[in-house]
Here is the input.
Amino acid sequence: MAWAENVEKMLKDTDVSVEEEVSRWQRHCIYRVPKYIKDLNPKAYRPVAVSLGPFHHGDPELLPMEEHKRRALRRLLRRCGRPLMEFAVAVESVADELESAYVGLGAEWRGSQGKRERFVEMMIVDGCFLLEVMRVTAAAGKHVDGYAPNDPVFSSHGVLHVVPFIRREMLMLENQLPLLLLKTLVAVETAKPPEMQVDDFINWMVLRFLSPASRLPAYGAALALHPLDVFRRSMLYGQYQPRRGSPEMLELTDIIRPAVELRAAGIQFKPSEADSLHDIRFRRGVLSMPPVSVDDSTEYMLLNMMAFERLHVGAGNDVTAFVFFMDNIIHSAQGVALLCSVGIIENAVGTDGEVAKLFNRLTKNLVLEPDSALDAVHKQVNAYCREPWRVFRAKIVLADRYFKNNPWALPSLTSVVVALVATVLQTVFALLQFFKDNGNGSPAAPSPK
Here is the structure.
């Protein structure tokens, strides 16, 4: 059979060792988001202002930015005084690694020499554009040499109206550039070999652009994979709360209860001192959580980080676990209001109900690893709430809140109770009357003769 012969031939042609397979998969870090993930919110993964990398290069709606990319390349070349050929040779030397970063890279970018040159050209143009955007933004509104003060992109006007879209789209998984590319370009621009380039500088430069208030990675940290990776890492530092407690408590597997129920059981909430998603802790009846600002970009940012965790083996599930935790603890608009009142949530999207719906959308079709990063917090909080007197307290508080929020319910309940008591009394009196009549008032039956 022809198909069997083809399979046998493929087995011989593709016979690779486990070590080679491991090496091949390790180089992958930029993915096309599958339809089963993307269907949740397709707009969250598709750029509308600029394409970075090959996956959206050439999209018709993104073509207007290509002219500005070329202008940025010319300005960078004039400023540094290095010939373009030096950049091309340097990027060509790492082109295999750059290609391997993209999973499912199209045939139009790989294969013949002409396709490789096209790939290298695209990498240089997009990388230099990103360097220039970050440079202009770092100038903090000051005029940058080489650009007109009324430049639509590289001016204070562009920083205000265009750069926010570029910044947001740098966090889309399908729109990533490897930081190895930026490191290579900066090495040529500064006339310093790549081995003299400190990875920290590249990490810090990108993170300062994406989120100026974020905590910088520790000195000596490895070069991040891409902008989404360096931003995600900035949100994950420090240790999780360690597991402790009785064996019975550690065996509990249920999810955490909503904030409203936890407050009813006597648990207090406060914002953590750090903004790391790891800094969620429960001690002596107090649940501390990192402050979270919810705005128009929050959904895009979290969806892309969760997609990266689902597609990149070894990335962990830290962001996914946090989103799952937040959805359960918020549960409703009342939960959002409670967390806003203590400074844990900063709502910049609208009503409390909209925030609750946002986190509910994020967890649709969500797959959480059995050993979640926040299991220890889940179990300790739930064990605390299971103490008998706290269960009783929660029921009393929730009942009191229910009647306060539904004033019509108390009269209705009172009417039902009165009707029930009246029915019971009526039944009791009827029974008493029945027994009384049978005992005293009925005539005796005649004796048979």
